[in-house]
């Protein structure tokens, strides 16, 4: 279970308080695969970061009854000045997994070739995403927070991600931010629209996409 | 889960994170260079050794007939620790931004890992130099435990200070770092690294002893030279200052929590 209870989030911009989230409540369980849709700047990434515990809430509460991944997005998570392999060993240690096992799993999953033993700052964005995604699979969370990470990969990588997530469908929850209806259809079975600081759930994905287009 | 079990779990995780951070720190700072890990000790030893050498060669004696080289080794090397911890306080956490994507890693952990490592390496460097020196002149430390206590307190005190510097930097004053560098230089005559309290006139001794780092250098010298000259240190005062500074540092860090993350 991963739960948000009346979560509010504001930033200070030019001396004024600007609310991004205005009382969001939600509950996610294992087996859920929810796409989060919203316009640019609606606060989708902020929501994902709050769920991942990277960002504190202004008001309200986040409760985590299962292990939740870090937000798998463009930045963060891996250190640019050390190699992919060293990142694997380090993250394995902080998540209490075997460093050797995580390293070999990711080496195979991410297909980085010799780049695996080079500093991450030399990677393309697609390569960084493969590393980060592979790492999150190796660490094996109950809930995955995916913030566009799959979108930068090529078709082969997207397929790999889909297969990996499909395989753990029953035991993991998936929350995904994306603009592409195609990606959402292949990964999610329901959706939530984030609009004007509020989150509205739709059981049916197509219905959600229609509602979103109508905004 | 019961509270003690939760605390134990939390402590175990923190320990895991800190040891992983130390390993990574070793890697990024030293592992890939020529000579590798030897640099950990060479860095403070080159500086401490050179300063001691300069004073030794210049041939001035010290009041109380203390060995010149030993005096500067046990003075300069812990001062190196003081400077390293304070100067790197802000940068160490800023450079490690990606780590905070993992919610079990906190600013405090990163700081602790670095400073524990610095404390251990400086300690070993001091003993290597002192033992090496004892082959030529000067005696082995009279009471090594006092040296250990002095260096650990120095590291802990600076750690608290570093937390405050970090909090101020996060709060939005990037200029804090610019001030810290000159500050650590200007502090050289006041830290107590290069003078002994009994050399001062009585009324100045009182003011010098308000500074806890003066006590720390005195206990380190006491451990090295033993009886023969008077020392001025108060363990209670050092511990109290260290605890207060650390509490203030942690409170300040708590107050700015999340400000760094929100800049993404």
Question: What does this molecule look like?
Answer:
The complex is a heterodimer of chains A (215) and B (264). Chain A has helices at 44-51, 84-94, 99-110, 125-139, 155-167, 181-187, 205-213; strands at residues 2-13, 16-28, 33-37, 59-64, 143-147, 173-177, 190-195, 198-202. Chain A is built from seven helices and eight strands; from the N terminus they run E-E-E-H-E-H-H-H-E-H-E-H-E-E-H. Chain A starts with a strand and ends with a helix. Chain A folds into two domains: 1-69 and 142-161 and 171-215, Rossmann fold; 79-140. Helix content of chain A is 35%, strand content 27%. The model of chain A has no long low-confidence stretch (mean pLDDT 88). Chain A has 215 residues and is of the alpha/beta class. Chain A is globular. Chain A has a five-stranded mixed β-sheet with strand order 5-6-3-7-8. The model of chain B has no long low-confidence stretch (mean pLDDT 86). Chain B has one domain (3-263). With 264 residues, chain B is mostly helical. Chain B has helices at 3-31, 38-58, 68-94, 107-134, 144-170, 175-186, 188-191, 202-208, 212-225, 235-255. Chain B is 72% helix and 0% strand. Chain B is globular. The chains are: A alpha/beta (215), B mainly alpha (264). The A-B interface holds A 11, 49, 52-56, 70-71, 75-82, 86, 90-91, 93-96 and B 13, 16-17, 19-21, 23-24, 27-28, 96-105, 257-258, 261-262, 264.
Task: Give structural attributes.
heterodimer, A: 215 residues, Rossmann fold, 2 domains, 5-stranded mixed β-sheet, 3-stranded antiparallel β-sheet, 8 strands, globular, B: 264 residues, mainly alpha, 10 helices
Question: Helices and strands in order, then pairings?
Answer:
The complex is a heterodimer of chains A (215) and B (264).
Chain A lengths: L1 E12 L2 E13 L4 E5 L6 H8 L7 E6 L19 H11 L4 H12 L14 H15 L3 E5 L7 H13 L5 E5 L3 H7 L2 E6 L2 E5 L2 H9 L2
Helix pairs in contact in A: 2-3, 3-4
Chain B lengths: L2 H29 L6 H21 L9 H27 L12 H28 L9 H27 L4 H12 L1 H4 L10 H7 L3 H14 L9 H21 L9
């Amino acid at each position: 279970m991963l739960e948000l209870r009346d979560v509010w989030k504001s930033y200070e911009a030019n001396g004024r308080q600007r609310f991004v989230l205005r009382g969001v409540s939600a509950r996610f369980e294992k087996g859920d695969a929810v796409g989060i849709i919203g316009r640019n700047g609606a606060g989708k990434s902020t929501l994902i970061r709050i769920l991942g515990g990277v960002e504190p809430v202004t008001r309200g509460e986040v409760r985590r009854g299962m292990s939740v991944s870090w937000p798998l997005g463009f930045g963060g998570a891996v250190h640019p000045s050390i190699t992919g392999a060293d990142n694997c060993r380090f993250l394995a240690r902080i998540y209490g997994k075997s460093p050797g096992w995580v390293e070999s799993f990711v080496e195979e999953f991410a297909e980085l070739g010799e780049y695996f033993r080079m500093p991450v700052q030399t990677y393309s964005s697609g390569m960084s995403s493969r590393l980060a995604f592979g790492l999150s699979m190796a660490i094996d969370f109950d809930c995955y927070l995916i913030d566009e990470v799959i979108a930068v990969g090529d078709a082969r990588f997207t397929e790999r991600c889909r297969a990996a997530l499909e395989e753990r469908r029953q035991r993991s929850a998936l929350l995904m931010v994306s603009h592409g209806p195609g990606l959402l259809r292949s990964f999610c079975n329901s959706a939530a629209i984030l609009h004007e600081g509020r989150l509205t759930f739709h059981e049916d994905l197509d219905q959600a996409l229609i509602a979103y287009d109508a905004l | 889960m019961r509270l003690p079990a939760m605390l134990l779990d939390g402590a175990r995780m923190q320990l895991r994170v800190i040891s992983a951070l130390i390993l990574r720190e070793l890697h990024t700072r030293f592992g890939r260079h020529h000579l590798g890990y030897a640099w950990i000790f060479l860095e403070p030893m080159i500086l401490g050794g050179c300063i001691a050498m300069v004073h030794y060669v210049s041939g001035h004696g010290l009041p109380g007939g203390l060995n010149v080289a030993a005096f500067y080794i046990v003075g300069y090397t812990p001062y190196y620790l003081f400077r390293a911890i304070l100067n790197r306080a802000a940068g160490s956490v800023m450079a490690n931004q990606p780590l905070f994507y993992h919610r079990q890693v906190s600013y405090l952990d990163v700081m602790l890992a670095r400073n524990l490592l610095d404390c251990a390496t400086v300690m070993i460097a001091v003993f290597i130099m002192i033992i090496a020196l004892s082959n030529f002149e000067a005696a082995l430390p009279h009471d090594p435990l006092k040296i250990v206590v002095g260096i650990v307190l120095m590291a802990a005190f600076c750690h608290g200070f570093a937390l405050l510097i970090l909090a101020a930097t996060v709060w939005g004053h990037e200029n804090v770092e610019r001030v810290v560098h000159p500050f650590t230089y200007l502090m050289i005559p006041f830290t107590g690294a290069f003078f002994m309290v009994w050399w001062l006139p009585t009324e100045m001794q009182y003011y010098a002893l308000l500074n806890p780092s003066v006590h720390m250098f005195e206990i380190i010298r006491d451990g090295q030279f033993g009886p023969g000259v008077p020392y001025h240190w108060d363990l209670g005062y050092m511990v109290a200052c260290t605890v207060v500074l650390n509490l203030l540092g942690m409170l300040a860090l708590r107050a700015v929590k999340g400000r760094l993350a929100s800049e993404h």
